[in-house]
Automatic annotation (TrEMBL):
MF annotations from Gene Ontology: ATP binding; glutamate-tRNA ligase activity
tRNA synthetases class I (E and Q) anti-codon binding domain residues: 482-558
Primary location recorded for the protein, binned into one broad class: cytoplasm
Annotated protein name in UniProt: glutamate--tRNA ligase
Coiled-coil residues: none
Top-rank taxon, per record: Eukaryota
Organism: Paragonimus westermani
Sequence ranges assigned to domain Glutamyl/glutaminyl-tRNA synthetase class Ib catalytic in this UniProt record: 61-365
Cellular component terms per the entry's GO annotation: aminoacyl-tRNA synthetase multienzyme complex; cytosol; methionyl glutamyl tRNA synthetase complex
Residue intervals of the Glutamyl/glutaminyl-tRNA synthetase class Ib anti-codon binding domain: 391-462
EC numbers on record: 6.1.1.17
Compositionally biased tracts (Low complexity): 647-657
Catalytic reaction annotation: tRNA(Glu) + L-glutamate + ATP = L-glutamyl-tRNA(Glu) + AMP + diphosphate
Comp. bias intervals (Basic and acidic residues): 605-619
Length: 703
């Protein structure tokens, strides 16, 4: 027990002394009153996410911030930042500041700020304080002027291209050694936005020889004669983010500033700014930026998609914006679980969308009501008594209309029941009809088994089917499962016309590099529409409702059914958007006679074939091991093997066979090697268990 307690103390000491991913300069100015250990155990997420410790964090004293720029709509990358900050705020019972970074008057618009304020609550993000960087413009102005007086900043009129080249070559500007008086005079020109002042900027005087490019005299103020969305024409100079952010963080009481790892090189700069103006420096915590395959998060590039008409707007379900992914069926809880499952890791990698949608499926599957929707194939000839694209099935043994109560969800009784109509005539999809065989027993989902009496087929098209109810047979294990809808007749509850929209990625290439022109990889066929006929109950769906169409997948209602559209005066179908499930390849058409949509190839692999392959591999491995490792008696000296003499003709034939069979042998070798390893594991395990059993038996006999 004593050694165990010492081990625990050593482990706790090791955790406390672990290095934090912040710069030495930042750690030199830790926030006052923030001493003590961090309880990392409290920051473990139930889905397996790992969160780094917050140095010096105390319950009730942690202040974090989410600083979006109101120059565009929130996308999924912003969502990760917001949810991570919210998570730390909740864990430590602290405060979350929502601060709009409005330092660039040419980009900020009020409409973007309104959309951000609307999107964050939809993600479940609640802030304690709302502010703007522009609230501190007067303070930032005074601090910049003080830095000029202290010789820590200077005004530079070098053009942008030359300044960039000088920073790369580590060449100081000719303005770097100007007197304080000259710098202050030029500063006044900037504040007045004179012709000369518009050519100037203020640069921090740090170190032009630094290996860190962010420390080579970065620009901290610029002159812009533009109206600001909040301050109007009061100012002609505006601070840059790298100058304003650390100062406002300190002034507003932020204790821990969470930033993506792309800002890692600027952490020294962040600390230098606070030290230059004599302010406390918050702790900087890095985490990885969310990068997704087949996706662009650049505001400029996303704007191009909107302006080119390739999408229907910023809330298009193909867009990575918060409004777009929520419209496609992503739930706030599903996104939260995905983000927090990633934790605050600093490792960056291109992630697949399938992972996000898989989390979402776990959220919606237990509560999504089940309905039926049949695909109406417009390429099929019409059948008597059925809507175009569907096949009529006459039920022998059912003469009346009957309403049956079935569970809304087969595994969630709390959702209650719903009524379905049973009748003498039902409709099924043509894909299911062509698979039916006379005399076959099939299962009508939510009704029971029936026997196929006749299949009316002309060529490759089925025009009708006759079946006989066989409800006494309750064996559903090996029967094909069929979704269906009863013909309501002229007086029954009418079926619901559905328009189902399926979206794909906007880009055909998974990873777009810096050298790639993304316009060459545009997916021009990223939107598909299908016409379906659904249950009567689908007429009452509301916008945002999530359901499952049996054997087809999950859908979110984008536009409710309207019996008379005000614009056209005609019936308007219920518009459903398919929700991805996180499978390898989305496919909305189920296999005929099955109860689930198509899955990945791995899921379809036959278990019997796998067993036979493993068995064959084990046998071959045993045989090869016996041939390669013959047993020898003690004291017997192994002799050299004698090779038979081959003729020239035989040698050439053997060489030809080797050459022709090389590729086949190579592929077989890989497969057999894997199977042999599996067999070896089984044999080793069997040997190990037998040894353990014999030892245990001997011990029992001794006793």
């Amino acid at each position: 027990m004593e050694s165990l307690s010492k081990w625990k103390e050593a482990l706790q000491l090791w955790r406390v002394n672990q290095p934090v991913h912040i710069t030495d300069a930042a750690s030199a100015t830790q926030p006052s009153g923030m001493s003590g250990k961090t309880t990392a155990a409290e920051m473990r997420f139930e889905m397996g996410g790992k969160f780094g410790e917050l140095p010096g964090a105390k319950i009730g004293e942690v202040v974090v911030r989410f600083p979006p720029e109101a120059s565009g709509y929130l996308h999924i990358g912003h969502a990760k930042a917001a949810l991570l900050n919210q998570h730390y705020r909740n864990i430590f019972e602290g405060r979350l500041i929502l601060r709009f970074d409005d330092t660039n008057p040419s980009k900020e618009k009020e409409i973007y700020e309104e959309s951000i304020l609307s999107d964050l609550p939809r993600l479940g993000v609640c802030w304690d304080v709302r502010s703007h960087t522009s609230d501190h413009f007067e303070l930032l102005l005074k601090l910049c002027e003080q830095m000029i007086r202290d010789g820590k900043a200077y005004v530079d009129n070098t053009d942008g291209e030359t300044m960039k080249a000088q920073r790369e070559s580590r060449t100081p500007s000719v303005c770097r050694d100007n007197s304080v008086e000259k710098n202050l005079a030029w500063w006044e020109e900037m504040k007045k936005a004179t012709e000369f002042g518009l050519q100037c900027c203020v640069r921090a005087k740090i170190d032009m020889n630094s290996n860190n490019g962010a420390l080579r005299d970065p620009t901290i103020y610029r002159c812009k004669k533009e109206s600001h969305v909040r301050t109007g024409n009061k100012y002609n100079v505006y601070p840059l983010y790298d100058f304003a952010c650390p100062i406002v963080d300190s002034v507003e009481g932020v204790t821990h500033a969470l930033r993506t790892s792309e800002y890692n090189d600027r952490n020294d700069q962040y600390a230098w700014m606070c030290q230059a103006v004599g302010l406390r420096c918050p702790m900087v915590i890095d985490y990885s930026r969310l990068a997704l395959q087949n996706t662009l998060l650049s505001k400029r590039k996303l704007t191009w998609f909107v302006e080119e008409g390739l999408v229907d707007g910023w809330d298009d379900p193909r867009m990575p914006t918060v409004s777009g992914i929520l419209r496609r069926g992503m739930t706030a809880e599903g996104l939260r679980q995905f983000i927090l499952a990633q934790g605050s890791s600093r490792s960056s990698a291109q992630m697949e969308w399938d992972k996000i949608w898989a989390f979402n499926k776990k959220v919606i599957d237990p509560v999504a009501p089940r309905y039926t929707g049949l695909l109406m194939d417009p390429t099929l000839p019409s059948s008597d008594g059925a809507p175009r694209g569907l096949v009529p099935v006459r039920i022998h043994g059912q003469s009346d209309f009957v309403e049956k109560q079935v569970p809304i969800h087969p595994k969630n009784e709390h959702l209650g029941d719903r009524g379905i109509l049973l009748g003498p005539l039902i409709f099924i999809e043509h894909a299911d009809a062509v698979c039916l065989k006379q005399g076959e027993n099939v299962t009508l989902i939510n009704w029971g088994n029936c026997r196929v009496l006749n299949v009316h087929q002309t060529g490759q098209f089925v025009s009708g089917v006759d079946v006989e109810l066989n409800l006494a047979d309750t064996n559903y294990k090996k029967t094909p499962k069929i979704t269906w809808l009863a013909d309501p007749g002229p007086t029954g509850p009418a079926l619901t016309p559905l328009s189902c929209v399926i979206y794909d990625h906007l880009l055909t290439k998974a990873v777009i590099t810096k050298d790639d022109d993304f316009k060459l990889f545009i997916n021009r066929n990223s939107k598909t529409e299908q016409c379906l006929l659904g249950d009567h109950g689908l007429r009452f769906l509301k916008k945002g409702d999530i359901i499952q169409l049996q054997r087809r997948g999950y859908y979110i209602c984008d536009a409710p059914y309207d019996p008379k559209c005000p614009a056209t005066g005609h019936e308007s179908p219920c518009v459903l958007i398919q929700i991805p499930e996180g499978t390898a390849k989305p496919d909305t058409t189920p296999d005929p006679g099955t109860s689930e949509p198509k899955g990945s190839a791995r899921a379809k692999a036959k278990p019997d074939e796998k067993k036979e392959a493993r068995k064959e591999g084990r046998n071959k491995w045993k045989l090869s091991s016996q041939l390669q490792q013959p047993t020898q008696s003690e004291g017997v000296v192994p002799t050299k093997s004698v090779q038979p003499v081959q003729s020239a003709a035989n040698s050439s034939a053997i060489a030809a066979n080797k050459e022709t069979n090389f590729s086949e042998s190579k592929s077989q070798a890989k497969k057999q090697t894997k199977l042999a390893l599996e067999a070896r594991k089984e044999v080793d395990f069997a040997d190990w268990t037998s040894v353990k059993y014999n030892a245990k038996l001997q011990n029992s006999q001794r006793k």
